[in-house]
Amino acid sequence: MDTCAPGETSEICWFCRKGRYSECMKEIPVQGRSDGPHDCTFDTKLVPCKWWKEHMSYHKEFWDKYTDENESRYNEEFAKFTRDLAISLHCSSVLEIGCGTGIDLRLFPDSFEIHGVDLHQKAIDIAKEKLPIGNFKIGDITNLPFEDSSVDFVFTHGLLNYLDDETLDKGVSEMYRVAGKYIMNCEKFEESENQIDEHHKFRNMLKRWMNYKVKVVSNVDMHEEIDPDKSRFTLLKKL
What is the third-level CATH fold of 74-238? Predict the structure, then answer.
């Protein structure tokens, strides 16, 4: 077993450094170094793991409530639209970032490789129960646990409105890295990206993609029968 030793410490725990966010230690020694998944025995104080502190601890109550209400948000028309679009584009694998309980992935056939990532363990557990053929895991949009160009169709639906600007920019880079063919963003739109409320803001995703090698296939508001929020549908082909 690895040992702990006094000295400088990373602000991110051993598990998160390995990308194993669902196993986050939540607290790490501030005056020591942890080289493995074990308890430290030397005298030192603990501080929150930076990943846990930034992504989970501050908004846990909000996201618990969001997860509890996620099933009631199931929109069969949007799920059909996303499935049919991916099939028509000759894709065979799909990834939703910020998948919640997996409601937008429910109608994909088992001929697809179905992937979903979310920061919230409770949501992932429900997604696994509701769609056993899917590959659901804890994942951060700034560090997606997928190889380059490994998923044909990568999409978000109402996620990017909740991200701060820095996280969004990193997330766009990661979406581009992971996508093999197409990227779809369906987000509440406003040209100037004003704040909606304390939790989220409008996004102009076309602007965010202008510095990437992509072809804009579509950038229009969705019909309210498909998405009652009339989110901006931005579809891009990776070049």
Answer: Rossmann fold (3.40.50)
